TrEMBL record, chain A:
Localization annotation: Cell envelope
Keywords: Signal, Transport
KW Lipid biosynthesis (keyword) present: no
GO terms for cellular component: cell envelope
Primary site of residence: other
Protein known as: Sugar ABC transporter substrate-binding protein
Pfam families named in the record: SBP_bac_8
Similarity comment text for this entry: Belongs to the bacterial solute-binding protein 1 family.
Signal sequence bounds: 1-27
Matches recorded under Gene3D superfamilies: Periplasmic binding protein-like II (3.40.190.10)
From TrEMBL, chain B:
GO process terms (BP): transmembrane transport
Entry keyword set: Cell membrane, Membrane, Transmembrane, Transmembrane helix, Transport
Localization (cell): Cell membrane
Protein known as: Sugar ABC transporter permease
Principal subcellular localisation of the protein: membrane
GO CC list: plasma membrane
Length: 470, 313
């Protein structure tokens, strides 16, 4: 469920701007009256963005209400695009949720703004054990100040999704697709397979003579968003990692980004070069908002890389079977995958923090997580629930080891958590668009923005030093 | 445009004037005047003056909306001067304004003249205005569909003409011209109507004189219509240029600043900093920058077009 980060959130800025302004105005003029306290304190407002997951979490909320008849839970679902704007407006006006699903790319900013309640200071959530959850998840949600701001709900990793009809037409078996290797020089067996799966309007394959790269009927590899936020989460992030690139100096709360690493530049030049060769769409050819999902579902591409949270969406394919295969092995010999996950956070403005914390604890309990597992929408965060999801997805014909093997082999890596996420995205999103759209050498573009990004953190340090000097 | 209405002296009425020869003092209207001005003045104060003052104040602070503003002097302005994205964004905006205003004014003037010289039909005059009745967001979305690279009708038609699909909103060279033209399409009817209203105020006698002197259509246009229309054109230009600099909604729904900041117009950048990055102080500083630029441009336009005087007087 970890969706692309800022690009999409910025989409419907207009409507949201109006909302923010309107609510802001209310807040300033003091008209934003809250509901009566006695009524509000027994109601827990819970916000989430994913419709696929709504039924499972509704079921959890019902269970919680049964066990705690004194509370009732009011769930509001808002599309990803408007979600963050509504949250911001809510924090400003004091009309936000008590509990909401939070995203790793967003929570550092909220933690800095002090609008989140530290879970380690609430009775109900203080004793959540890291060992109950997938490795690293607790750390992912621990802020730079050592406080924990999220109760993990799920985790996700990246794999290849393929159109099995196209694979069969090209004579590529799913096993073959899942055991390819790539390198930045000639693309290796991965590029060869992608080229073979590309077919032009005359039926000539990408690796055959006479292939017309300007009139392609089916692209080997799909792509809709050049950057996936800061790190190419569902796109090139896993490739770059396999070439030895680390996004930041520390996995969590690093203060230095490595966009100037030649390993990244080589990867990107090769990756977006697939576009020049006609194996991957060009920038702007497909509507970015529709995502790689619609590229695969409409039969325009044969293979896409996407996250495990998208399995339910791909499973709804009616015209052909969609399967999953592991990301290819990179130059360093590993086949890594980016990894992330979402969590429940409590607003610092919650009407009844104890009730909110009890609800959060319940959402992270085995009872609720097994409901989530049964729904087969995401990998639940708890290790004791994850197997059930694997079973369900396997029954649906998905090879779940494509997602779990990198994790078990220690090749999965968490997306970095840093301050200034929005500022970094403001610089990287246009940069990755430029690299895909205009195809300059990526070193040229990224060497220019990397110092600007790191300046943000240097300025922090200077401000801190100045403070401590006083 | 200041309009000074001179109160003509009242014609002597039947009443005798005061004995000392002074004119009768008019009753004091100040209270009544204040009463009528008050609602508008209140609106002006609450919705214009106060936000303006507050915005200028915030531009000297570090403010994230959730905690109190912290005074930091000129730091935001120093950052602004050194911010390449701001200047890039300023250039993008100017390029947009040049295209938008240039084409729009020419088109609107043509339409206005056609309406004035060729038709009396209210229906036609109404039709010209229809794009203006569509909201900017809707117009933007409709054009995104029409000009979609893969499935848009626009590119389909180009295909029949043997032209390869053009990424109107996704190609960095095309995006700003496309957005400028979408807004020309939406606003030219309204602008034409303003100019048309101006044309109607021109006295028929000068045209008659021109005709008698044997002046043709084109000569009449350049020697009579244009000079007489100057104050109206000045007003129209000042209004449309200010509006054009503030372009936001069309960009927000069509390209959202992309590709690669090619359409990152000033208002969008300001919005991004304020509502995505919570840097209200810096966003306010940029807004003040825009205010200054607009002020300078307006004064220059006003002077150059001598908008405050008319050749008809």
């Amino acid at each position: 469920m970890t969706r692309k980060t800022f690009t999409r959130a910025r989409r419907s800025r207009l409507l949201s701007a109006t909302a923010v302004l309107a609510v802001g105005a209310l807040a300033l003029s003091g008209c934003g009256q809250r509901e009566g306290d006695s009524e509000a304190s027994s109601t827990i407002d819970y916000w989430l963005w994913d419709t696929q997951q709504l039924p499972a979490y509704q079921q959890c909320a019902d269970l919680f209400e049964q066990q705690h008849p004194e509370y009732n839970v009011n769930i509001t679902q808002t599309g990803w695009d408007d979600y963050w704007q509504r949250l911001t407006a809510g924090f400003l006006a004091g009309t936000g949720p008590d509990v909401f699903i939070n995203h790793p790319s967003r929570y550092p900013q909220y933690a800095d703004l002090e609008v989140l309640l530290p879970l380690d200071e609430q009775d109900a959530t203080a004793n959540q054990q890291a060992s109950d959850y997938q490795d690293g998840l607790m750390e992912l949600w621990t802020g730079s100040d050592g406080h924990r701001y999220g109760s993990p709900k799920d985790w996700d990793s990246i794999a290849l999704f393929y159109n099995s009809d196209y694979l069969a037409d090209g004579g590529v078996s799913p096993e073959e697709l899942g055991s390819l290797e790539w390198n930045p020089e000639d693309g290796g067996s991965f590029e060869a397979a992608i080229a073979h799966l590309t077919v032009d309007d005359n039926g000539v394959r990408g690796d055959e003579p006479g292939f017309d790269k300007d009139n392609v009927a089916v692209y080997g590899l799909g792509l809709s968003d050049p950057g996936g936020g800061n790190t190419g989460q569902g796109q090139w992030g896993s490739f770059a990692n396999g070439a030895g690139w680390e996004v930041t100096d520390e996995p969590f709360w690093g203060t230095e980004y490595n966009y100037d690493d030649p390993a990244l530049h080589e990867t990107l030049d090769w990756y977006f070069g697939l576009s020049d060769k006609g194996y991957m769409p060009k920038y702007g050819q497909f509507n970015q908002d529709d995502g790689t999902l619609s590229q695969l579902m409409s039969g325009s591409v044969a293979v896409v890389s996407d996250g495990s949270w998208m399995v339910p969406a791909y499973s709804s394919s009616e015209n052909f079977e969609v399967g999953t295969a592991r990301m290819p092995t990179g130059p360093d010999g590993t086949a890594p995958s980016t990894m992330s996950g979402v969590a429940d956070s409590i607003s610092a403005d919650a009407d009844n923090p104890e009730a909110a914390a009890e609800f959060v604890a319940f959402m992270g309990s085995q009872e609720c997580q097994s409901v989530v597992a049964e729904a087969g929408v995401v990998f639940p965060a708890r290790t004791d629930s994850v197997e059930r999801t694997e079973e369900i997805w396997t029954e649906q014909g998905f090879d779940t080891s494509a997602f779990t093997d990198p994790v078990e082999e220690g090749d999965a890596f968490f997306l970095p958590i840093t301050s200034h996420g929005a500022d970094v995205a403001a610089l990287t999103i246009p940069a990755f668009q430029e690299i895909w759209a205009d195809r300059p050498p990526s070193a040229e573009v990224l060497d220019r923005i990397n110092p600007a990004i790191n300046d943000l953190f240097i300025a922090d340090k200077e401000a801190e030093d100045a403070d401590s000097g006083n | 445009m200041t309009v000074l209405t001179q109160q003509p002296d009242r014609p002597p009425s039947g009443r005798p004037s005061s004995p000392d020869g002074k004119r009768r003092r008019r009753p004091d209207d100040t209270r009544t005047a204040l009463f009528f001005i008050a609602p508008a003045a209140l609106g002006l104060a609450v919705f214009l003056a106060w936000p303006l003052i507050r915005g200028i104040w915030l531009s000297f602070t570090n403010y994230n909306l959730l905690t109190d503003p912290e005074f930091i002097g000129l730091a935001n302005y120093r950052r602004l001067i050194a911010d390449p994205i701001f200047w890039d964004s300023m250039l993008t905006t100017v390029w947009y304004v040049v295209l938008n205003i240039g084409i729009q004014t020419a088109a609107a003037l043509t339409i206005a003249l056609l309406m004035y010289r060729l038709t009396q039909s209210t229906l036609l005059r109404g039709l010209v205005l229809t794009p203006y009745l569509v909201s900017n967001v809707v117009a933007g979305l409709v054009w995104v569909w029409i000009l979609d690279t893969q499935f848009g009708v626009g590119n389909q038609i180009l295909g029949w003409l043997g032209i390869d699909p053009i990424g109107f909103f996704t190609d960095s060279a095309w995006a700003i011209p496309t957005i400028a033209l979408v807004n020309v399409w939406r606003h030219m009817g309204y602008t034409a109507l303003l100019i048309f209203a101006g044309l109607q105020t021109l006295p028929a006698s000068v045209y008659e004189a021109a005709r008698l002197d044997g002046s043709g259509e084109i000569r009449t246009f350049f020697s009579v219509t244009m000079p007489l229309l100057r104050p109206i054109m000045a007003l129209v230009l000042i209004m449309t240029v200010i509006g054009s600099f503030q372009v936001f909604d069309t960009v927000a729904v069509t390209t959202n600043g992309g590709p690669a900041n090619a359409t990152n117009v000033l208002q969008l950048y300001i919005y991004d900093l304020a509502f995505d990055r919570f840097q209200f102080g810096y966003a306010s500083a940029m807004s003040v920058g825009l205010l200054i630029v607009l002020g300078i441009i307006t004064v220059i336009q006003y002077r150059m077009t001598r908008a405050d005087s008319s050749d008809l007087a």
